[in-house]
Each structure stands twice: as C-alpha cells, then as structure tokens.
Design goal:
Blueprint: H1 34-64, H2 67-78, E1 82-90, E2 98-106, H3 112-123, E3 130-134, H4 140-152, E4 156-159, E5 161-162, E6 168-169, E7 172-174, H5 177-181, E8 187-190, E9 194-197, H6 209-227, H7 232-238, E10 244-246, H8 248-253, E11 259-262
Parallel strand pairs: 2-3, 3-4, 4-8, 7-9, 8-11
Antiparallel strand pairs: 1-2, 5-6, 9-10
C-alpha cells in the first residue's frame, strides 16, 4: 500500500498537495510580524530626524538673527568686501629679482581673514613674496588675523596697487589696514603711498565700555610688540578720531616702515 505524503492545500494536513503556494506558517503567539518592527523603526528615525532639523534650525536662526552674523555670512559666501589679483613685481628690496605678489584691495570685512587665507593658499605664496595692500580699513579683529597670517607665512608688505604698465603704483592704507600691513616680515614704503591712523571705535554694545576699551588697547599693544612696531603708533591712533596721515619719517620712527621708500 502506497502512502501519499502530499499535504492538503486548505489546512496543511497530510494527503494534500505540498508546494510554495501553501499558506505561510503563523507567527507564534505574542510575536509581532517583522514588517511591523521595520515600520516602527523607520517612524522613530523620521521623528528623530525632524527633531534634529528643528534643533539645528532654531540654533541657526539664533546665530543669524543679529546684523553682525548676517554681515559675516554675506562677506564669507556671497559678496566678499575685498578683491585680489596675483601678479609678479620687481622686488622692492632693490635686488632686481622678480617675486609673486598678491594685490589686495577693498574694505576689511567681517570675514576677510578667512577670505585672505584662501587667496594666499591659492596663490601658493612663500616666504619673501609680497602682499600689496590698498584699503580704507574696516574690521579691527580681522585685520589683526590677516597680519598674523602674513607674518606666519613670512610675507613682505607694501602699500600700493598695480598700474597699467604692471608696475607698483602708490595707494593708501588707513585705519585697520595698518594692522594688516604691520604683519609684513619686511614692510616696504612706496613713494607716494600713505599710511593713515585714527582712534579705534567699536559698533558692538558693551556692558562695560571702559573695560572693553582697555582690553582692545592691550590686544593692540601686544600685537604691535609681536610685529616689532613701536607702541608710539598706538599713541598716534588714540590722538584723533580723524585719519592722521603719517609722514615717511613718522612711519619709519614708529617702525611701521622697515625698508627704504623707493620705486619698483
């Protein structure tokens, strides 16, 4: 007598047809289907994603809700306040050698230091190369950082721009620009160029204006000392709210200009 091992298609009992079309085995009592766990995990992940986005959005709104923050973002990403061009000039040290020079123009904005560092990196400037500055001034803190970058790379500075013949032409460097200029390893004078100083001001509200002024004065004294500039330049800055244009002799006496004034 032959036995039929096929299973019933309806109830899975012996004697019926077996195959992949049979009903799936039922889950043990009390156990959720796998698709239910998957749905719950994805739902929790979505909720966490929304919470994180809201948290970041609130933080960004707080960070960007002040005029200073918007000005920084604009200067950093959308409309930099400074421009630059890379050229080659005859060295201002009188050696006659040709050196790369980054020509920087414009107001020193709230994100100028990052912008400047990027331009220096792109230009691949090395120690002994030059930075030509032409600026009415701007952000004090950013100017100090620019000066620090210039000094750390061993770059020379001069106040000037490039004329149509590709030669260094006179220009001016005033207010905070003088701090950037002071970062030069060698600081060349250019005939006809001018350095201008005046009393620094702050647009940020301070709980204690006197203490804030003292901190800024101390920071400037330390910076000038590090750059080898006489503290007398700070006295000249503090003496007037209008720009005081320094004579060549004054700038040399203050050790702002460290190399003779001459033509390129």
């Amino acid at each position: 007598m032959a036995f039929d091992n096929r299973r019933d298609e309806r109830d899975g009992s012996p004697g019926s047809v077996a195959g992949p079309w049979g009903p799936p085995p039922s889950a043990p009592a009390g156990q959720r289907p796998a698709w239910s766990d998957y749905f719950i995990r994805n739902k929790l992940s979505a909720v966490m994603f929304v919470v994180i986005c809201l948290s970041v959005g609130v933080r960004m709104y707080r960070d960007l809700s002040t005029p200073d923050a918007w000005a920084y973002w604009k200067d950093q990403y959308f409309s930099p306040s400074m421009t630059s061009s890379l050229t080659t000039i005859t060295s201002l040290d009188g050696s006659g050698r040709r050196v790369p020079a980054l020509v920087v123009r414009g107001e020193i904005g709230p994100a100028a230091a990052n912008w400047f560092r990027d331009r220096i990196d792109e230009a691949h400037l090395k120690s002994g190369d030059a930075v030509l500055l032409s600026s009415p001034g701007g952000n004090l803190d950013q100017a100090i950082i620019i000066g620090e970058i210039i000094r750390s790379r061993g770059l020379d500075t001069a106040v000037g721009t490039i004329d149509g013949a590709g030669k260094v032409a006179p220009s001016y460097c005033a207010s905070a620009c003088v701090l950037a200029y002071a970062g030069g390893k060698a600081r060349f004078g250019v005939a006809g160029s001018r350095l201008g100083v005046h009393r620094f001001v702050t647009t940020r509200p301070a709980d204690d204006p006197v203490a804030d002024t003292q901190r800024t004065t101390g920071a400037l004294l330390n910076y000038f000392a590090k750059m080898g500039v006489s503290p007398s330049v700070l006295e000249a800055m503090s003496a007037t709210s209008d720009i005081r244009w320094l004579s060549v002799k004054e700038a040399e006496a203050m050790k702002l200009i460290t190399a003779p004034v001459g033509h390129s």
